[in-house]
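User: Need the bound-state model for 5U1:
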Amino acid sequence: MAASKKIIAEVERLRNEINQHNYRYHTQDDPVISDAEFDHLFRDLKALEAQYPELISDVSPTQRAGAAPLSAFSQVVHEMPMLSLDNAFVEADVIEFDRRIRTRLESDEEVAYACEPKIDGVAVSLLYEEGKLVRGATRGDGTTGEDITQNVRTIESIPLQLMGKGYPDKLEVRGEAYFPRSAFREMNQRAQSRGEKEFANPRNAAAGTLRQLDSRLAAERKLAMFCYSVGLMEGGELPEKHSEILQSLAEWGLRVNPLVERAHGAVQCVEYYKGISGRRESLGYEIDGVVFKVDDIGLQQKLGMLTRTPRWAIAHKFPAEEGITRLNDVDFQVGRTGAITPVARLAPVKVGGVTISNATLHNMDEIARLGLVIGDTVIVQRAGDVIPKIVSVILEKRPAKTTAIALPQHCPACSSDILRGEGEVAARCTGGLSCGAQQKESIRHFSSRLALDIEGLGDKLVEQLVDEGLIENAADLYQLTEKQLVKLERMAPKSANNLLEALETSKETTLSRFIYALGIQEVGETTARSLAMHFGDLAGLLEADEELLQTISDVGAIVANKIHHFFQQKSNLAVIHSLLGHGLHWKKEETGVITSSLAGETWVLTGSLHSLTRNEAKARLQKLGVKVAGSVSRKTTCVVAGDATGSKLTKAQELGLKVIDEDELITLLEEYGA
Ligand code: 5U1
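Assistant: Bound-state model below.
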């Protein structure tokens, strides 16, 4: 049955009433009815919409979280870039900011500023057309963000439909979405009771929530938003002062921070900062400073912008929070690429309401810079969501008995040698093929396109195989059975068989691919090819000392050292022998350079190639005695132009140089047998 006029009017009335109460509750923080009364209205509206689905509209308060999960976010190009703010850390920076402004404006008059708390959340853009919320987007890099409309619609303090009159036809409002402290605490308590991972802080939680592909999950998390500026605006007018624009936004139902104040000159700005700083802990949300903006929009326009920041605004940040504690120990962790990171184990200390017992030390240079020893009393700093760090040692408190911090010689995960090349910051484990901490990364690399190119073995599957305990290293891949594979989630017998076939096919490879697949640090595709061409077989490479390795093109002292160490690790050799035992093989690699009439010529590659990689093209040309250069000059003999070329091709044409395409290059390489 079609809805009668009376029903339509009732639906409209309920929506308006619910919107009003939502506004009173979420935006003004001043509810006038009880939760039970509100629920009653909401249920009435839902019931009518269920009975008359044709009356459901996008802006109905019942439609905040009804969307189906997305597979990915689409991109949004901001018509006006979303700016960031320059920072002031001390009073003098604010005074200097104010002075710069008056100098630019060539005025001695006191400047009026709008002062606002700086919310520690996630910048969001909201686009309203004819008063309707049509898009929500993240800031991204300031130019391109992600379309998070579905998630933004779940935030109750964001109106789906603007209220009142006089809003522009098109209005982009910007602000900060954030987790109120209470909602954050409740969510983490819930996560804890379910044995789920807790969020480190409200900002991370807000960012994670806005990046949920399933808006129903976002709706369960009670985010909020404060609006602080207007981006794009068409078909309307706004007041000439920033503080008045904020008032207009509030009249249209958008949530504006109630602590916004006007200040005259730097001294009042600093007073505002001190006042907010004193209230910081009592606020229901986290802030990391305050923002000062020249209030007069005309003056803002006169002042203009630098590349990413306006000259007319500055964020006066609170200092990072610090605590004093004792360094009990230093552990060494291995990352997924083998980098060894020292981690400080501290006597637990509360910093800004959070208990800290670990801090990153980054690398051995940092330890040396701090002059740190175990037993020291240290100052730790926590800034936002950044991992806490040790900023200094209190030498006066150093005890008589301390222990020096030494880089371990062997990897804590696999006992392979740890190597720190001369001049290198990071120390690394050399057990790439066999190290438990690196296993997923090393298997993923082993199966990648330029390595063994195992079709169907993507990152997710590698993860599953390792997590299920089916494989520990690349050689284990060749022991997998159909029976094991079909037991995996989302693995049909056909996919299992395809994978087994792909593994079988991958056994026939080339020596250079195999060397590259081992994942030796610093050995990319080109070096792997040079090694393969030089040695022709694996045995020679395994036995080579550093001196011999350094005679090979592309191999310097550091790379030679890495290669040598890699093959010194018994555990790596065990995996290599196991791979060979599973039947991996290749034709003996041709060594040496082919005599060709191209020898001595200089070629340049530009644009993207399709049938071969740029490194492959380079190596094959080098085999013919051609020098491959990075830039075009009069000395260039020939330019190979792939797709999407740029200035190199233009220059080649200007100089009248010979230019060939990828097909011609391949024909030529094949003619010469390179
Ligand atoms: N309160 C406030 N935060 N905040 C952040 N105002 C404000 N303004 C900003 C940013 C990035 O940018 C202006 C340049 C609009």
